[in-house]
Amino acid sequence: MLAPHDFQKNSLLGSLEEDELSRLLPDLEKVTLTLGESLSESGKVMSHVYFPLDSIVSLLCVMENGASTEIAVVGYEGVVGVSLFMGGETTPSRAIVQSAGEAYRLKGRLMKNEFYRAGAMQRMLLRYTQALLTQMAQTAVCNRHHSVDQQLCRWLLLSLDRIPGNQLKMTQELIANMLGVRREGVTESAGKLQKSGLIDYRRGRITVTDRQGLEERVCECYEVVKREYDRLLEHEAVM
Amino acid sequence: MLAPHDFQKNSLLGSLEEDELSRLLPDLEKVTLTLGESLSESGKVMSHVYFPLDSIVSLLCVMENGASTEIAVVGYEGVVGVSLFMGGETTPSRAIVQSAGEAYRLKGRLMKNEFYRAGAMQRMLLRYTQALLTQMAQTAVCNRHHSVDQQLCRWLLLSLDRIPGNQLKMTQELIANMLGVRREGVTESAGKLQKSGLIDYRRGRITVTDRQGLEERVCECYEVVKREYDRLLEHEAVM
DNA sequence: GTATATCTGTGCGGTAGCGTACAGATGTTT
DNA sequence: AAACATCTGTACGCTACCGCACAGATATAC
Question: What is the pTM assigned to this prediction?
């Protein structure tokens, strides 16, 4: 038996108008995303766009020497593959599944067709893309000015906002790759948070036990991004 | 006497189709941008979008404590004010004139009207916005992984690509604000470039004397951004 | 239950960049 | 020409983070 309004778990899909939905629904394909899976490689054309339901996808910039940094994170509020409708077809960044879960996907061609109908879907996607711009910008400034401690808090909160529950399956090694810092640095910062009783870290599983405590410790970057996402995505698009 | 095809100095305007041009031309207003002028403040709605001709505009993320970082730079190849057509109306970042010069501007409302006609203009603007995304992403990763030396080279080259000539009017203090580092750090890095004979720095005026030398010293980030801009903007938009 | 792989904690020397302070250089104004 | 503002160079101690090395802890497989 099919879950009746499953797709609504993704807020972009959930905000569609009737006619858009009826056009798209038959082509939406539910897929399970596994940890570490790559949805998009640098310079390659994606076959689909992905609308996460309870999964998280990281957009990573990978450099020649293999070092990487997460530039944005996408969850139920967004879509992976904006370059398909923005017209560039590819991007130099990678999209990696950071937290396993489900997503709907839609063939690139169909996404573009819907986008160019210039309806509510287009407006939502553009506003979402602007939110993504803000997240990237804030990531840049955070990378420059804030300590690993603060960045870890930001990362935890941004991730937590995108999944149900308060637990992340994630090794320190992977977090370090996301933040673009040493694994030992994450160990140290996570240790401080642990000692302060904010999180409980147990071999690849972080449980946030005091969310408010994290919010008190995080840098302003988290709030800036969150406010902008709320502003851009939680209201109806106005033209 | 009017310069006949002045607007073509901006490549977005220059790539418009006949009918678009005839609609927009009467409303394009030529303005002179002065060094340090602000075109957009955090959270405020811009009245116009700006198409630089020979000026450079920096997009800055400013934090509560006043520290800032440049997240992207816009010149003749682009437009300042993407949030107007992306639908968000405002952004949390500021737009500051980094190099004085001229630009055409267009009222926000008219920009949106043209955008929603979904013609060549829309496609160009979207591709440009994707290029901007790439620049921000690469800035984030560069801030994380590269030395001030390398970042200064990147900044010089990106700026130089956007103006005629090989001279920038710019104090080290301002460059430091852009890069989000100490002024002394810029002094030191610029000193190295000077000793290597790549630039000539004289109180607020940098002359690049060996562009190729800079390109040999810059990190990969410059090339990634440049390639993506070329790819996305120098060809006709394909749907 | 034991072996194994992986993940986490800790220590240590090295360094890039920070904050601060101040001196010298160079345009500009009068 | 002298006075001034501003920009540039240098120095010094400090801290966060890096790279490396390795030991201990914990899940999983057999």
Answer: 0.94
